[in-house]
Amino acid sequence: MTSHLPALVVTVPLLTAFAAFAAGWLRPKLCFPVGLTGLGITAISSIWLLAEVLEAGTVTYELGRWPAPWGIVYVVDRLNGVVLAAISLCAFIQWISSRASVKSQFSDRIGAFYGLELLFVTGVMGITVTGDAFNLYVLLEIASITAYALIAMGGGRAPLSSLNYVFMGTIGACFYLLGVGYLYIMTGSLNMADLASILQGMRSSQAILVAFVIIIVGVWLKMGFFPLHGWLPNAYTHAPWPATTLIAPLMTKVMAYVMMRLVLFLFGPEYSFGVLGLKDVVVWWASLAVVAGSVIALSQKDLKRMITCIILIEIAYMVGGTFLGNRSGTTGAIFHLVNDVFMTLCVFLAVSSLAFRQRELDMDTMEGLFSEMPFTMGALVTGALSIVGVPPTCGFFSKWLLLKGALEAGHYEFMVALILSSLVCLVLFFRVFEAAYFGHGERSHGHHRMREAPLGMVVPLLVVAIGIVALGLMSGEVISSIIEPALPRGVL
Amino acid sequence: MRILGILVCVATGAMLIWASGEFPPWGDPNSPASLHVSPRYIEKTMEETSVPNAVTSVLADYRGYDTMFETTVIFAAGVSCFMLLRLFSGRERSSHHYRHILTGLTLRVRRKGKQLPELEEFEPMDSLWTPYDLILRTLCRFLIPFIQLFALYVIAHGHHSPGGGFQGGVILGASMILLAISQDMRSALRRIRERTLAIFSVAGVAIYAGTGALCLILGSNFLDYAALSRIFPVDPVGARSLGIFLVEVGVGIAVMATMIVIYHNLASEGFLDEGL
Amino acid sequence: MDRILEVVIAKYNYWIYIVLMMIGLYGVIAKNNLVKKIVGMSIFQTAIILFFISMGMKKGATIPIIIHGQEASVRASDYINPLPHVLMLTAIVVAVSTLGVALALAVKVYKEFDTLEEDEILEKIRKS
């Protein structure tokens, strides 16, 4: 059975989605347990798969038993494996935590909502594990269409924000498809490993150059990289909380993984960093994006919108880190990807717990929250410290690697942007904590009773917060055993 | 916005046209796309899958995994339309229209609330009713069974002629939509209810994924139809042809149900009482 | 002059699809009405589908269904490339699904704001 793990990792959420949807029509109470079982099996399979990859090297799986490049193959190496484990754990924890929210908001269409959430997880897992360029497009569209629908359930402005996301997201995915078409017409293959070997001999082709540019622009559109980020703040802010906590940690990070896979493995480091001097241009642009993201985040008053805009900063880190072109930078970007899944999950889950109890997230109504909801605020503090980059949370180590990479590559502007944005994040979160601890309103400073969120929301949140610290403490082993060997040889 | 749009489009278009300078000329039989991967599909499709239609064999066997996810995409779109638009409380109207079946006389009953029950000699009409056209209604009623028969032919004959699950499924869905347009949505819903459609759409994709899982359970890789030769009395090549047929049936069912669900929800804005 | 004509005749199919694509892209970016944007998106996706199909063509070849009776002596150059057709079956289904979801969203937007023009919607949002 273990040799079928790559297929299980995608098929189990898919079948679970069908079961959950059918259960919604026949017996709605079963939707949650069915999904829980499916996601649990997926999480266990992906961790097992990662262990297998660490032991035995890259795992290849031929679907339908057709060899590449005639059939579709799944290739799991260390980069894949660690991202798979991260996203499946994130989806499992989020499923448990959002139960109360979903039951209160969507009880009449619970089968459809849970089914779409599970299909989103299927799409995201499939994007990570596939080794075929066109298969990636199909799975990307599964994840996107389910995300559009989940975001639009928020009511009010949500359908309009989702429609804007539809337009920009479809253009991004179609650019990716067009780029794959250009690659196909020049090489005749769709398999990533096959393409990589054929493209070695086509370095000076103009069609390949345009294909590279179009694919990367398409991926950046879906990732929310400044200035193609226009859909992100509105879409994630107006979405309902269960949808935001699922989509925000996963969608953009998986697109960042796609960018790393294409840049490092498909086109190769020498081509991606050497052609057109892109390395320097992109890092400059990423620094600009970091600064722009910080400015946008600073100008937000609503807490949910503020933490959504922090995603822009994190994505810009990953783009800049990848294009720095040296081992430290790329390792930092990959580790930051894994960290960011958990950091974003932690912060969003914490704020969703706050919203579940408080209903309004203005700075005025946040007074006394530290004594009312100590566990939630504690987890929020941990997440915030990780985003700022304070040891021993994991965020510190990935930022340290990025700084080191920028120093080695001589990109001082990226270092300045990193440090500046960390300070901005500190200011942002300090505003929140100050309002929560000292308070602005006329409410008395008396002792507030503890009114925590339900246990189903607090326990997963604490698990994630502890996980962030644990990941930070174990970062040395994680980096040296998983991430460092994942890089291709061409990265200096 | 206009100027930005023009600039972006001209710049992107110029870049794409510049790249096309290197493309092989149109119809070149020696282009890399024609020489590298696809000759095997054409040359080996008969001996490996015994399906003459190379498109079907590539779609459902060589790259069958993509097709499974494509069916999932259309299923997700159907579920999304249902989830976004469906309202269970029903439209409140101030008056309802009825038509006497034998004479064609129309009545307007002023009474608030949901739809009145159906009376024996009167049938309920849409409030945005189009004039009653006997020729249209009767003709469509005659045509629909033939359309469905043709759709079933397209699904079943996908091995030997252009066709397959998607095409046949869309034609099946179109036949029910024709019923909803030519008569009214209530009669279409009476023929195939909403719950049935939901179960069909799940069942269709589940047949596809289930066939793949069955191959997994029988010991081979996911979606390797040759494993089906262990339980069906066919050789591995015939088993591939059988597997392709099974998944095409699943796809056809799923696509039919989803098309009808999307039409119902969009045309009636979620109320599923009347539309178009 | 002859060289230019040669290039045009060999490659004009690609240029047509690129022009179509850019018309669709312009529609999505610059038009005000939401349904027009959706139509532009659809044109954009259809142009990509046409582009893929055109790359599978081979001169003098027939459709990729093995002719009954000639199964023993199949030559790849007698039949057009089936792979782009397969990929585009998938892309068409994806385009239809996106269209369905976009139309459902437009219906919801209309229910909320009573108009489909983007500037009027933004005006209403700013006022409320």
Walk me through the structure.
- The complex is a heterotrimer of chains A (about 500), B (about 280) and C (about 130).
- By secondary structure, chain A is mostly helical.
- Chain A has a domain at about 285-490.
- Helices cover about 75% and strands about 0% of the residues of chain A.
- Chain A is built from 21 helices and 2 strands.
- Chain A starts with a helix and ends in a 9-residue tail after the last helix.
- The model of chain A has no long low-confidence stretch (mean pLDDT about 85).
- Chain B has a domain at about 55-90 and about 130-265.
- In chain B, about 60% of the residues lie in helices and about 5% in strands.
- In chain B, strands 2-1-3 form a 3-stranded antiparallel beta sheet, with no helix packed on it.
- The longest helix of chain C has about 30 residues, at about 80-115.
- Chain C starts with a helix and ends with a helix.
- The mean pLDDT of chain C is about 90.
- The chains are: A mainly alpha (about 500), B mainly alpha (about 280), C mainly alpha (about 130).
- Chains B and C meet through helix 1, helix 3, helix 4, helix 5 and helix 10 of B and helix 1 and helix 3 of C.
Task: Give a brief rundown of this model.
Chain A has 492 residues and is mainly α. Chain A has helices at 5-26, 31-56, 78-97, 99-105, 110-129, 133-151, 158-187, 192-199, 206-223, 232-238, 241-266, 269-274, 278-298, 303-323, 327-358, 369-372, 374-388, 394-409, 412-437, 455-473, 475-483, and strands at 59-62, 73-76.
Keywords:
heterotrimer, A: 492 residues, mainly alpha, two-stranded antiparallel sheet, 2 strands, B: 276 residues, 61% helix, 7% strand, globular
CATH architecture of chain C: Orthogonal Bundle
Overall pLDDT of chain A, averaged? 87
How would you describe the oligomerization state of the chains in this entry?
heterotrimer
Helix count from the secondary structure assignment of chain C? 4
Order of helices and strands of chain C: HHHH
Question: Alpha-carbon distance between the termini of chain C?
Answer: 62 Å
Rg for CA atoms of chain C: 21 Å
Number of helices of chain A: 21
Q: Report the radius of gyration of chain A as a whole number of Å.
A: 22 Å
Outline the low-pLDDT stretches of chain A: none
N- and C-termini, Cα separation of chain A? 38 Å
CATH topology of chain C: Helix Hairpins
Number of E-state strands of chain A? 2
